[in-house]
Amino acid sequence: MELIGTEFFSIIIMVAILVDRRKVRRRKGSLPADQFYLKLLVSYLGFLFIALLAHVSILQVVHFPLFLERTISIVHIVTFPLFILIRLSSVEVHLLERKPFVILSIVQVTGAAIYTAFSLVDILLGRFYVFDDTLRIVGGNGFITTTLLSVAYCLVAFVVIAVSWKKIELGNHLHVFIIPLFFMVSMVFFYLFKQHNLFTLSTSFLLLTNYMFLLRKRFEIDSLTGVPNQNAFMTRLEWILKQKHEATVFVLDIENFRFINHRYGTAVGDALLQSFATYLSALVLDAEVFRIAGNRFSVVASKLSHNEIVRVVNRFKVRIAQPWEVAGASISFHVNVAIIELPDHADAKDQVVDTLDFTLSEIKSRRRQSIVIYNKRLMLLRQRRLNILTALRNAISNESMVVVHYQPIYDTSTGHLVSAEALMRLQDDQLGLLMPGEFIPFAENTGLIVNLTEIMLRRVCTFLTNHETAFRHLRHISINVSAEDFSSSDMARRLLDIVDNSGVKASRLSFEMTESLLLESYETVKNSWGAFAQRGITLALDDFGTGYSNLEALVNMPFDIVKIDRSVVSNSTNNFELITL
């Protein structure tokens, strides 16, 4: 009766999985592996029902005609190697290329077909199996063949797993290995003791763990588009790089997607993302598509030749040039595409992401091309920027790397030197003398600009202290500041503390900010600017007249000096109205 109990309990578990699977699919959507798992589940339920029927007959719980009892027992024994073949094929199909898998399947299925035919014929002949008094199979060539065929399938699976070990997804090696191991141990146990409790329990356990694995995979699926998400993308990159596989990675960024949501509504925006993901899934043969951010996707393919990349890009250009009809709306949008090759351009997953982000930022900043393949030029440019960032960080800890040049400012009416502007440079052993245009953007993006501003202020204060007599006629020395300097609420106090500690009069200093930076963070700067003005620090606005000139900022902020941008001055000779106001 314990056999019937085991099988009945296993049936309950499998039915519970089917019910739960249906609920999860409604809530989360379907996975590609769902259909294959469903086939396994149904085939195992069939095995359990036949096993339950056989043991009900053997234990005389229900009386069947003699011929039907023999038929049930033989069909039951045949289902062992057949189910093992079905289950192990689900492993082999993911590890082998298509052609080797087809050849192996033909060989294995042929063996199973011959074995099944002999077994079914033996229902009439009674020579292949030996039965006891309860019509339970206990021996015979058929029983030995059942065991040998099942073990052979397991051994073949071990060979496939060993040969394809590197192809197995990270974290899945143990799960793949124990499947044939459990089957083989269970069949040996079945042969020795004529009991298949271990086989039933092992199979139920494996299918249950399989289901848990599928549920875990759902956390790597984007619920909106149904494609794998960023976590899956990072796992895939890690696997590719660890196995040293060659791959081509596309990252596609839909530009101004927020505008699409505002104009058409989020429902239409979601429909567009779904349509775009579906299109990408068919763009490159045998490629994987990932949604790695709100409006950013990635296509990962086995390494493509240059000509293949060009063909993919051309197909994409043709499609993206046409409007997308979704949810009753016709939408045109722009997509930036970065392409890198692995492992040529990166050998770590974080490096891959950084390289892709760098390539996309180059596309957006230069605006010459919307599709860029990461190449040697970009590689050198990126490396230089990384070196500049390293030099910048070194300069924070080693202030001697910060070089200050002073640009004199003369009064044109008298020709006298009246003030100066402090200009920062970085002196690096490898890169040489770095100009502000190269390192200031990185300093602002990383927040290091605050440290540089403090260093510059200390250096200028030291200069004024050391040359107080020689340059006593100077009204002030100007220091450029950034809007990022005032992201911290106590920045004004920190700068004023530096001035106070140096002993320099605050009136001998000038802080200068460009108009564009002022407009980006007007409210943030306004309060700090007032504190500087109260201490007598001269305040200057640089590059006025570029971008969206803001007269309100000019009037409300306590500027002492306004520098007109050179573009306005140079054009004034041809367009006098520019300076009439």
Cα(first) to Cα(last) distance is: 103 Å
Q: What is the total domain count?
A: 3
Number of strands: 16
Our Rg estimate from Cα atoms comes to 37 Å
What would you call the structural class? alpha/beta
**Major sheet description:** 7 strands, mixed
Per the principal axes of the C-alpha atoms, what is the gross shape? elongated
Task: Supply the CATH architecture of the largest domain.
Answer: Up-down Bundle
Provide the residue-averaged pLDDT. Answer: 83
**Number of distinct helices:** 20
How much of the polypeptide forms β-strand, as a percent range? 15-25%
CATH topology of the largest domain: Rhopdopsin 7-helix transmembrane proteins
Helix content: 55-70%
CATH classification class of the largest domain:
Mainly Alpha
**What ranges have pLDDT less than 50 throughout 5 or more consecutive residues?**
none
